[in-house]
Amino acid sequence: MVFHRVASAAVCIAGICLSSAPSRSQATASTPAPLTLDEAIRRAEANEPTFAAALAEGKATALERKDAIAGMLPSAVYHNEYLFTQSNGSQAVTTQGGVNESLPVFIANNAIHEYVSQGSVTETVGLSKYAALKTADANAARAAAELEVARRGLVQTVVGLYYSSGAANKKITVAQRALDEANRFVDVTTKRENAREAAHADVIKARLSQQQRQRELDDAKLAADKARLELGVLLFPDPATQYTLAPADTPPLLPDRAAIEAAAKSNNPEIRSALAGVQASQAAALTAKAGLLPDLSMNFTYGIDAPQFAKRGPDGALNLGYSASATLDIPVWDWLTSQRKIKEAEIRGQAAKATLTNAQRRLLASLAEFYDEAAVARRQLASLDASVTDARESLRLTNLRYVNGEGTVLDVVDAQNTLISAENAQADGVVRYETALAQLETLTGRL
User: Fold this and answer.
1) Are 139 and 280 within 8 A, CB to CB?
2) Residue pair 148/58 in contact by the 8 Å Cβ criterion
3) What is the DSSP annotation of 383-427?
4) Model pLDDT, residue 10
5) Three-class SS of residue 170?
6) Which of 59, 147, 149, 280 could form a disulfide with 54 if both were Cys (CB 3.0 to 4.6 A apart)?
7) DSSP secondary structure string for all residues of 126-152
8) What is the pLDDT of residues 35-75, one digit of tens each?
9) Residues 120, 124, 130, 133: what is their CA dihedral angle, to the nearest 10 degrees?
């Protein structure tokens, strides 16, 4: 109540008196909800440019695959054209125009006035279009795998920054508590000096420790601000946006190793991407081989191509009709270009297989590395908690011994340092375990 009256008085002095205080529901509505890890990941996926580029590439290659499928189907056009050619000044009997009709000056043209209105369906049958579809399939599969790689990499980054920011906030609390303890110890040493129970050197040592604790608090606040901004860059349009992190839950248990290995081997984007690279090289070889095989083109046309834009000519001749054609192009000689392209595709295919094999080896190594890291970090959590408990008790007992004249100022400062180190190590241990666990979960696709 005293604080409320002082705050109200200060506001009134500044000339900003409010007619009424906001209700508790209004204050709660204006305060953003604590940011959970899932919400942080969702925001990062909406803002991070590398992930957005991978997402765009995945959508583009999916459309390219549809284009490749459409390329294997017949195409239809409705062609309309009017041609005018200068007369050569002569008169001749024509098939459709009657006698004494002027002829065009160009022998390649059919008449002075020529109207074309035709629907045309064309289909080309050959290995090249099938190879194009296989290439599009491989590119789409690789883009989808790379998108998942980008997503998992982004998730690992967000998890690391999220827990690092939480640990930085906790270290502020540790540093503030240490400063309060240092201030109290300065007061204790000063009182003992005044009572002629301690030397002035004890006061100086206590003040030095107090100054060090103040610097550590400033550094902890700076580190927390940096961690907040680093995470804010991924989550918000304005990195300076204020937010709070959800309270940390108890670290979950480490999953069974066999389950982790089975999930990682069946759902690994790096291996899928490498496998798509092998498929792309095989499709490139197929495209090169298509250059050695013939293509069959077929066309069906229906409409008019006549001197009159009419179903029949002046003499009753039929202008409306159809035509069909089939063309087979057989490759004969291309200066061994196709053979060289086949060889190039085979060479790149060998490199793609080596990449696939390396990805498989890297998966096995990463599984062992990440799981061992998470197992060790998990085992150390209990030890870190015990160290904090023991360090607090040690500081309490050391303070009592000093007050009773049985200990030295150096013992107290050493106990303070030990507690600070233990609490900071405890915060870092949680970050280490959560990060290692996130690496395992992203490796298996669970996160």
Assistant:
1) yes
2) no
3) HHHHHHHHHHHHHHHHHHHHHTTSS-HHHHHHHHHHHHHHHHHHH
4) 38
5) helix
6) 147
7) SHHHHHHHHHHHHHHHHHHHHHHHHHH
8) 999 999 999 999 889 999 999 999 999 999 999 999 899 99
9) -30
Chain centre distance of CA 109: 60
pLDDT at 263: 83
Alpha-carbon dihedral sign for residues 400, 401, 403, 408: negative
H or E element, residue 220:
helix 200-235
Domains in the chain: ranges and CATH: 34-73+126-293+331-444 (1.20.1600.10)
- Dihedral angle computed from the Cα positions of residues 307, 312, 316 and 318, in that order, rounded to the nearest 10 degrees: 90
- Phi, then psi, of 427 in degrees rounded to 5: -65, -45
Look-up: residue for tokens 């400063």?
179
The whole-number pLDDT of residue 259 equals 85
Enter the DSSP assignment of 309: S
CA distance 305 to 80: 10
Say whether 86 sits in a helix, a strand or coil: coil
CB 234 within 8 A of CB 161: yes
Query: Helix, strand, coil proportions of the chain in percent (round to 5)?
Result: 65, 15, 20
Total-model pTM:
0.75
pLDDT below 70 — which residues of the chain?
A: 1-31, 92-100, 447
Mutual orientation of helices 200-235 and 127-194 as an angle, nearest 10°?
160
Res 111: pLDDT: 86
- Widest pairwise Cα distance in the chain: 140
The CA–CA distances, whole Å, from 139 to 65, 78, 135, 181 equal 8, 33, 6, 62
Determine the pLDDT at residue 118.
Answer: 93
Rounded CA gap, 83 and 320, in Å? 18
Q: Are 141 and 272 in contact (CB under 8 A)?
A: yes
pLDDT at 313: 85
CB 154 within 8 A of CB 37: no
318: β partners: 312
Rounded distance between C-alpha atoms, residue 202 and residue 188, angstroms: 10
Q: At 240, is the secondary structure helix, strand, or coil?
A: coil
Q: Tell me whether strands 101-104 and 320-329 are parallel, antiparallel or unpaired.
A: unpaired
